[in-house]
Structure formats: structure tokens, C-alpha cells
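Can't paste images in this forum, so I'm doing it all in text. The chain is below; anyone willing to post the predicted C-alpha cells underneath?
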Amino acid sequence: MKYTSLTFLLILLLWSCETPEPKADKFGLKEKSNKVNVPDFKAIIESAGLKGSLLIYDGTNFYSNDFKWAEKRRLPASTYKIPNSIIALELGIMENDSTISKWDGQPRFMKRWERDLVFRDAFHLSCVPCYQEIAREIGTKRMKAYANLFNFGKMDINDSNIDLFWLEGKSGISQFEQIEFLKTFNEQRLSVSQKTYKTMRRMMIIEDNDAFTLRGKTGWSVANDKDNCWFVGWVETAKGIYYFATNIEPGETTNGDDLFTLRKEITYEALELIAFE
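Text version of the structure:
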């Protein structure tokens, strides 16, 4: 694994001392940008029978139906697979997006996880056991150091929760912070290698066609019988780059199974209004 001397020194310093708490909105993106309320976003969410917030950033303006919702930190759930993957690639735990994550033969929560998976498939299929194994190999000290270096919300990481902190407990990240992190990564302002950057950009692609390229990750956690659903990423179009972070909860009549598709569907609808108008 290759590091710049500055990166190696910084990581070494972080590992050897107490990790400071990350500060929200480190680069001031939220304060420096205009906030535009979009009533159509509210209509999109309500027509789907959901509660929550759509947040899109075009480089100048934040667009949302509920900025207060967007400021609240919630468990990152599987959106943490983005930084977790970056760290695994940087440390050489996963060599590339084709590295095999072996199945141990034990029953898993989802049948689709019960096989050997290449890294990119483990990412898109949100294979929790695969990433728990990665997290344990990264270890508490290094995970805390990188989460702080990346300014990824406020992660509560210790030896007892190293393989669960993104799914339960006190960790949290806001929609604003999600976009801040994604923008920082996409602009190559994270202290990671070009190999990691290129591999991760390739691995994150959900859709790529003549009109746009969309990269992202979904997430879903349940705490105290309350669903917390995410879809975060960015889309590159002829007009420019648009970052998005969607966070929703089911409404009173929402079918839980529909949440898998609804979080993406409402995000695409919102992007149609801003990125493709």
C-alpha cells in the first residue's frame, strides 16, 4: 500500500493519541450555501406515504423540504459502508473491488449473502457479515482515527461495538454531513491514495448511461422499532454534479418491504426536478 509521507504521518499521529471528536460541517458547506425550500419534495414524500427529508446540493444551493430533519444526526446504517470500504482499500485489507469475501458456511440473515462475494457485490448487497469482518480487522483504533480524519458525523466506536456501531448505539450523521463527506471524497480532498479513490468511484456506480452517472449507497437501521432509511450519493449530468442525501421513515400505512425501493424512487423524482429539469 502506498501513502504520501504527510498522510502516513497524520494517520500515525492519530493512532498514537486520543482521537478528538469530529466537528459537524467541518468545511462550512452548510453555512456558505443558500437553502431553498422545495414544496414539491414534500409532495413526493407524502405521496409515497413516508416521513422525512430530501436534500440535494448543486454546488451553490441546498434544496430540501425539511432542513431541520436534515440537520439531525441519525445512525448511518449501511451508508457507513462507503468509509468502511475506503479504509479497507487503504489498509490493503481488500486489494480491489474484485477481492473475494469468503462465506463461512453459517446461516445469514439474508440468503443473498450466503455465498462468496466479490467486494463490489458485498457493497451493493449490503452484506453486513462481510463488513463486520472487515471492521474487526481494521480494529477500534484505526477505525476511530479514519472516521475522525474523514469527518464522518460523530461515530461512537469502541472495542465492544466495533462491528455494530453503524447499526446501533450512539453513532450519528446528518444529511448535511453525508453530503459534506461525499463532496470531500469526490473532490479528492480525503487523504487516500489514487488507487483507493478510483476503485471506490468505480465500486459505487449504481447506474451509468449516456445521460448520467449515479453513484451511491442505501442504508437501513432499526432502533426501538423505528426504521431509519437512507439513500446517499451523487449524480453527474451534463448540467453538473448533484449530491444527495435522503432520509426517511415509514408512514402509518407504509409497507415495510416497499422501503427498499421507495427511498431510491423518491430520490430519483427529486433529482428529476433539480438535476434534469
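The domain at 5-274 is CATH 3.40.710.10 (Beta-lactamase). The chain is about 40% helix and 20% strand.
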